[in-house]
Design brief:
single chain, five-stranded antiparallel β-sheet, elongated, 2 domains, 9 helices, alpha+beta, 286 residues, six-stranded mixed β-sheet, Nuclear Transport Factor 2, Chain: A
Length: 286
């Protein structure tokens, strides 16, 4: 068999009956694969695309435009389809050095399990490519600044440092409540990976009141009141996220976590003449 025939056999004109999602690092791709295997998927049904070689798997000619043209002709000739738009995201992610995970599923139950695993590992653009249509299977994607705190809390509660750090820039800063500052994604990941076994396994983080201040169309500051339940007493912090848009994604450039000290929390006089905590939401004070 010549090289051209080998490429054609490996060519994927369209990921039919696959749940597909993008993750940022090799470690995340590996842990997601291990979770899929533990859930009962076989290795032959899991495919990871990364780098120029796998771009050529999508396009045997080595020209991405050729693949996209073939895909568009294969699916439909006259309409712009949603699945076409999402598949171009995956091509762009491969070019950017990210990892595209494809999981072949035969039944809807398998589709749901695969999507849940990818979402728990912070995958983006998670969807199912059926024979005729694409289905969005993302779980509350962080595609608007308001969703960043909830995505952070969800990853923290799953004790999933890879999903948590997928929210951050490579050179992000994170200042915790004790004043310790981590200066890049890897140090943030390691700090949160070391958490289990240190008495936090029974704790739950919940994002409460969230406010967003847009500094520009692509930059925002997000303040979220976060409550750590299971601690005695429950702990409340204000977490400030500085986020910016990268394509269709919003990511964190900097995070600062500050304890709310209940006994020292300042009060303000409201319109009715009563004192209340200054952090309580209102039209004047937040």
């Amino acid at each position: 068999m010549n090289e051209s025939s080998t490429e054609r056999r490996d060519f994927r004109p369209y990921p039919t009956n696959c749940v597909v999602g993008t993750v940022g690092t090799a470690d995340t791709a590996q842990t997601a694969t291990e979770a899929l295997l533990e859930a009962g998927f076989v290795r032959e049904d899991i495919d990871i695309l990364h780098g120029e070689k796998d771009l050529q798997r999508l396009d045997p000619t080595g020209v991405a435009q050729g693949f996209l043209a073939q895909f568009q002709r294969t699916v439909i000739r006259t309409f712009e389809l949603e699945e076409f738009k999402h598949l171009t995201h995956h091509l762009a992610d491969i070019r950017a050095g990210r990892f595209v995970i494809m999981v072949r599923t035969k039944r809807r139950a398998e589709r749901i399990v695969a999507a849940d695993i990818l979402n728990r590992h912070g995958a983006e653009f998670v969807g199912f490519y059926g024979r005729w249509a694409w289905e969005d299977l993302s779980a509350a994607p962080h595609n608007v600044p308001e969703e960043i705190p909830a995505s952070f809390a969800r990853a923290w509660n799953h004790r999933d440092p890879d999903a948590l750090t997928s929210l951050f820039d490579e050179d992000a800063d994170f200042v915790n409540v004790t004043g310790v500052c981590w200066h890049d994604r890897e140090s943030i990941r390691k700090a949160h990976a070391d958490g289990p076994g240190r008495g936090i396994d029974t704790l739950t983080l919940e994002a409460g009141t969230t406010k967003v201040k847009r500094l520009s169309p692509d930059i925002a500051v997000v303040h979220a009141r976060m409550t750590l339940s299971g601690a005695t007493p429950p702990r409340t912090t204000i977490v400030s996220f500085v986020v910016h848009r990268i394509g269709e994604r919003w990511q964190c450039a900097s995070v600062h976590n500050t304890d709310v000290l209940q006994n020292l929390e300042p009060t303000v006089l409201d319109d009715a003449g009563a004192f209340r905590p200054a952090n309580e939401p209102s039209g004047r004070v937040s």
